[in-house]
Amino acid sequence: MSLYAIGDLHLHFASELKAPGQLTDPVWRGHEERFLANCRALVRAEDTLVLAGDHSWGKNPEQAGPDLDFIAALPGRKILLRGNHDMFWDAKKTAALNGRYAGRLFFLQNNYCAYSDTALVGTKGFTFEGPFYLDRRRRIVGWDEREAARAEKLVARELERLRLSFEAARSDGYRRFVVFLHYPPTNILEEASGFTAMAEEYGAQQVVYAHCHGESRFHNSLEGLHRGVSYSLVSGDFLRWMPKRILD
Ligand SMILES: [Fe+2]
Ligand SMILES: [Fe+2]
């Protein structure tokens, strides 16, 4: 039995594509077929696959339907996290999505999922992405204060949601955790954040995140072991559409 993760499929079987680069960049060309073939070769029925957000360009559950059906038809148990582009998924209506896809997909929001003796917890997260101001040598010398203040509020809300997820698992007796975020756990200037602090507080083994796609963004946040927690990026183009093994 294995646990795998990947994010940022950005499917658009029945919706308008919002990132034209997806059509021209070779890593995205036919990515659905390559991803499907990789999953069929790698993931077995008893395995779990976490999809770390940005599943679909669909604006509502109807437009996202074919994309979610594509994911549901993949091998293994599928757990979905909200991404910033998942407009079809209103956080307050997660229970309705879980009802609609019961037995096919699990939507993780203010809840958790058990994987053997480990609880898979998570939320979308949030990261301040600028605008940053650069000097002539392209060093960051400042940033947009209003956007930074807005980001602080969004981070606080996501931290509350992550704590709800941890507490739901802990009250059921779980002491081992893997954290999934859509956004990276820190912004490009940080080495620590509320998310890294919470992962440490609960003794999480790993933090797995997506959202950083395009080569220039692959190293925007933590990777590898930091203060006892292992961090990894699982955006689909970074992984070349091959899900990453998280736990055996
Ligand atoms: Fe994305
Ligand atoms: Fe994203």
Q: Which key phrases capture this entry?
A:
6 helices, alpha/beta, 13 strands, 248 residues, globular, six-stranded mixed β-sheet, binds fe (ii) ion
Task: Give a written overview of the molecule.
The chain is α/β, with parallel strands linked by helices. The protein is 28% helix and 22% strand. The protein has a six-stranded mixed beta sheet, covered by helices on one side. A five-stranded mixed beta sheet has the order 4-3-2-1-13. Strands 7-8 form a two-stranded antiparallel ribbon. A hairpin with a 2-residue loop joins β5 and β6 (118-123). It is globular and about 50 Å long. 40% of the residues are buried. The mean pLDDT is 95. It binds fe (ii) ion (2 copies).
Q: Give the C-alpha Rg.
A: 17 Å
Question: Structural class per helix/strand content?
Answer: alpha/beta
- Total of DSSP H or I helical runs spanning 4+ residues: 6
What's the shape?
globular
The portion of residues assigned to helices is 25-40%
Strand order of the largest sheet: 5-6-9-10-12-11
Bound small molecules, deduplicated = fe (ii) ion
Q: Based on DSSP secondary structure assignment, what is the total number of beta strands?
A: 13
Report strand %.
Answer: 15-25%
Terminal CA distance: 6 Å
User: Roughly what is the average pLDDT, rounded to an integer?
Assistant: 95
The secondary-structure element order is EHHEHEHEEEEEHEHEEEE
The largest β sheet comes out as: 6 strands, mixed
User: Which residues sit in consecutive blocks of at least 5 with pLDDT less than 50?
Assistant: none
